[in-house]
Design goal:
about 25% strand, 4 helices, nucleic acid binding, single chain, 7 strands, globular, four-stranded antiparallel beta sheet
């Protein structure tokens, strides 16, 4: 029986430890059924560091890959952190049809296509309540068609 020795064994052990560590950390953050949809939601709808310049929508839509192969007509970015958005799926939101409506106003920027190519967008920065779909307690869809500026009653 031949055993691994020297740098080959060290490299193999390091690689195995790294793979196990990454998979454990990654799987502990998100339930398996919701993970892919939640990560897509975050990429498409969350930006915790918005710029205040007039080019924000043009820049963020390009950076997120929403301008190719075609210009996306509309997309909204929710600016609070992941936890605040996720809490809408729990005690900081209420049922709203098949969605959850946030108890609090969120700072949101909606980018609307003005023309292109190259894609050019206008932006609406009004604070609003967000309506989201949740899967296993994680946001997986933002309903941009439901712009709720004032709730009929607080949570």
């Amino acid at each position: 029986m031949k055993l691994f020795k020297g740098p080959g064994l060290v490299s193999l052990v390091f690689l195995l430890v790294a793979l196990v560590s990454v998979s454990e950390v990654d799987s502990s953050k998100h339930p398996p059924g919701a993970k892919v949809r939640y990560m897509h939601f975050l990429n498409e709808h969350r930006d915790s560091n918005p710029s205040t310049g007039g080019r924000y929508c043009n820049d963020i839509m390009r950076k997120r890959g929403l301008t190719s192969p075609n210009c996306k007509e509309k997309n909204s970015f929710i600016h609070p952190n992941d936890t605040a958005i996720k809490d809408v799926c729990g005690d900081r939101g209420e049922p709203y049809g098949t969605l959850r409506l946030s108890c609090n106003l969120f700072q949101v920027t909606t980018c609307d296509l003005k023309g292109g190519p190259p894609c050019k967008y206008s932006q609406d920065n009004r604070p609003r309540h967000i309506a989201i779909a949740c899967d296993q307690g994680y946001p997986v869809h933002y309903d941009e068609g439901n712009v709720v500026l004032n709730r009929p009653q607080p949570c």
